[in-house]
Amino acid sequence: MFRRTQSRRAQFGGRPVFWARMVQSALLCVIAIAMLGAGRSPYERVGHELMCACGCSAVLLDCNHLGCPDRERMENELHAHLAAGESETAVLHWFAAKYGATVLAAPIRGGFDDVAWIVPIAVFLLATVGTFAVVWMWKRRALSLARASAGIAAGGGVGEFPEAGQAAPEEAAMRERIRRETEY
Amino acid sequence: MISHPMPEFGSFCLLLALILTVYNFAVGGLALWGASPAGLRITGRPEAVWNRLGETARRAGIASFAALCCAAFALVWAAFTDDFSVEYIRAHSNIALNPAYKFAALWSGQEGSLLLWAWMLSAYGFVLRIRHRVDVRLTAFASVIMAAIQTFFLLLLTIAAPPFSIAPGPIAADGAGLNPLLQYPEMVIHPPMLYLGYVGFSVPFAFALGALMMRYPGEKWIHITRRWTMVTWLFLTCGIFMGAHWAYSVLGWGGYWGWDPVENASLMPWLTGTAFLHSVMMQEKRGMMKNWNVWLIFCTFMLTILGTLLTRSGAVSSVHAFAQSAIGAWFYTFICIVFAVCLFTFFLQRDHLKSENKLESLVSRESSFLFNNMILLAACFTVLWGTLFPVLSEYVQGSKVTVGAPFYNRVNIPIGLFLLFLTGIGPLLAWRSTSLRSIRRNFILPSIAMAVAAIALMIGGVRPWNDGDEMQSTLFSLVAFTLAAGVVTAISEEFLRGANVVRTQTGRNLLSSIVLLTRRNTRRYGGYIIHFGIVVMFIGIAGGAFNQSREMEMGYGDTLSIGPYRLVCQSITQDSKPEYDTDYALLDVYKYDKKVTQLAPEKRTYFAGTDHEQSSTIVALHSTAEADVYTVFEGKSPDTGRPIIKVFLNPLIAWIWIGVMIVVAGTFVALVPNLVRQPVRQRQEDLAPVSGPGLGAAGVLAKVPHV
Lengths: 184, 707
What we know:
The complex is a heterodimer. Chain A has helices at about 1-10, 15-35, 40-45, 70-85, 90-100, 115-155, 170-180.
């Protein structure tokens, strides 16, 4: 047994070598990620902002069904417009004018389209502020209740106002078990 | 007159199931009313009479499961025996179809999948009714609510979408066959998994609504449904990610999630279900958030129905067009009824849902749960908004717009990162209030890990400010990797800290201590494992910022380079099978001049049993932890006849699937009951009087784990 452990240690080079290998692997992973981080070309970017007009519900550059009647033509148009030096926004608007608004993979024409972007952000911000407000209000209410009950206790009124949450013994036991299970 | 014994048997079983379910609903409901104080007062009959009546309703519910089993069997039998007199089988199967896919034909179309839904619902109901002794009255309420849901689906099956309709005219010699995209092993498992998830949420919904209706005291209903909810959530998680893996492996566009309305439909109940699983702990532990939890589970159930509505009504355009039909009106009506019942019951009984405790500190576990819920619901709202915006736009502007991946990615990524952040800090906060000292102690190591990771990544080249137009995606990836490092450190710290205590108590080694620690508190440590899996998945998703792709016509000996990989075309071959013709290319894959594998992407053209040819892409991929080399045979160039090969280099994508497996493992751990600590018999010397203060071990039971 001892010999086996020893030979394993020799095989893997012991603890320091193990950690060195771990660090080496982590660094390799970081470098690999960095090496893979090449930016996409304007063609790829715009091509992923457009839908194929054939009705397959796929993004233009991801449409790969056999005999698609539109993809090649649209890709050539995209190449031509980008080669002519047009901005990405102008190219997108050109496609929307030619094929209709559904050719854009996201609503970007302004006007009511902006509502699509504004509403989720507004809801998210409102929810964040709302959650903070709720927490703050609850905290204040808890404090004022604690003060009030302390005042009652000082005035000898304990027992007149039972806690809302007084639980049955069975429930109290379950709560205690859950407390053990979830308590930090 | 031609006889069709099996379809007739199936139709009879469906009708029988409907009658039994209606009986369960109507008589069960009547029995519950009769046994209530008001019912007893009005009718004057003893409670035992109503209880006996309720028992007959329960048994009818159990029998409906048997009837639906027979109906499902009849349809599968028809598929296996190639009974093309059944319209559904004619439209979704053919003689040459692989038997596994004949079985899958049960859920490959509208009527079959609705039958599967009803069958699963009755199976869940069966288990619920068999286990009624856990709480007879609450289960009776839940059983009646389940029966009401089942009645809807059975009405749908018998009136609007009958699966046993007889095909008009002479019996066809062969069927139209199964959609080639569905002829993939995962499609045999993915839809039932997803349906188990969708349908399963009916159970906690039924218990929650039942508990509210009967003003059930305390939180026992949550305790009863905890395992149901977790199992359902697990099924839904597996279903969603199997679908993602299927899309990745079959559709051939290099991605796994296209934000299609049907994909969104499965994600929404998952998000609210996840929020419910978290916030329900606050109710269990502190009697808080009762209103919130009730509405979370109501919404989760309604979202599962909404998902089905979106899949089948054609309200929004989707690539899952094979299941569209005109049964939307049924689902709209059902959702409206469910919402009305939930709202009415809530307002009637809202005084029963008063919180027993209030939140005491902003920096506490409770507030982290609140923010977690807020984030999950914000993500759910974004998905719902994006899914329905085309309909709204058409109503307001008169023209439809597309809301695709660019919208969801831009809006949901920051929300996802916030969620990742909370995944890390939530478990480090204490219930009620967290002291400054505790914050310092718990957060110092994760903060260091995050700083080290961020610096290492930037040194390694992940520099958003250098990436021009790609700055945003690189920045998000940097933040995701950094947060992931922090969360993993926080989780590891939790395990190590607990394991050290166990090690000190028991003298075990570290690994054994971690195992024992987890077994002692499976719910908590299972939860940490799930969080770890989610982090691993986030790492995989963040890798998407570095995807690359190339496409070229390839002849014999041609080379295509992408990242560190080089692909050399060795041959282009054609083959014929009974069901399809196939073209494929053999590509040798080299990494830095070393051959690592050979890939054979295919393009299949199916003709067997179909009126027209259908093509399908068979992706070939080489998957490693670092990156996937993903090759697609796109077709042949009309000019040169040479194959067009598209290659994607997708970094870290395997981490997503590994993460899902960790999540599954964590959920299983959380489902296992805790190891019971049993007191060992005291030794005589422990009981003997001891001299000196502070050594009073006598009389104290030494609690060591029983292994």
